[in-house]
Design brief:
With 195 residues, this protein is of the alpha+beta class. Helices cover 29% and strands 21% of the residues. A five-stranded antiparallel β-sheet has the order 3-2-1-5-6, with helices on one face. The chain has a single domain, classed as minor pseudopilin epsh fold (3-Layer(bab) Sandwich).
């Protein structure tokens, strides 16, 4: 006839031993990789928080120039991990008594957005009260005041107006699980997120 028909049967699939070996390898790699993923996630969270604070400082500088009014960024305002952009009431030489951390950090007393935009009734450029994630903290901070000419000043005592930030600048330091990120602000108003 036509010849013998040969039936070929192919083995397909995996044995139980092969599947167990793959599952064991995936488990070992997962156990080794989880701490690394946690560290990467922590670094990302710290970097994100530092970028948010850096953007708030940039916004404060731009608001001071645009509104022709001094603007401050207050940290740990009123509690640790919170910060807020606030328009200075009064003048740099004679700030209003309400410009302290306790008064200006209150979203109730000084709401965002301002109830009106009348230049006579200030403040008009206060920002919202912002909060860092609970795992990130400020370790080094000082209130930064930006003037309408873009320069940055900080309180070095009880002297009014505040002097410009001295060279080489002042740092805002954020920490998460022993790792830090710094934002450097100098007297001419340059704001730099450091690696």
């Amino acid at each position: 006839m036509w010849g013998a028909v040969v039936k070929i049967q192919a083995d397909s699939g995996f044995t139980l031993i092969e599947l167990l070996m793959v599952v064991a390898l995936v488990g070992i790699v997962s156990v080794i990789g989880m701490p690394l993923l946690g560290q990467i996630a922590g670094s990302i969270e710290l970097g994100e928080a530092a970028r948010q604070v850096e953007r708030e400082l940039q916004s404060a500088r731009m608001a001071a120039v645009a509104a022709n009014q001094p603007v401050r960024v207050m940290f740990n305002c009123p509690v640790a991990g919170q910060y807020r952009l606030v328009e200075l009431i009064g003048t740099p030489a004679v700030p209003a008594a309400a410009d302290g951390v306790v008064g200006r950090c209150s979203s109730t007393t000084y709401p965002f957005p301002a109830p009106d935009n009348n230049p006579i009734t200030r403040p008009n450029t206060d920002g919202p009260l912002r909060t860092l994630k609970s795992t990130v903290t400020f370790t080094t901070v000082t209130t930064i005041e930006f003037w309408p000419d873009g320069t940055a000043h900080t309180n070095s005592g009880l002297v009014n107006p505040w002097p410009p930030i001295a060279s080489p600048g002042t740092s805002i330091v954020l920490t998460r699980s022993g790792k830090t990120r710094s934002i450097l602000v100098n007297g001419i108003g340059k704001i730099q997120l450091l690696p």
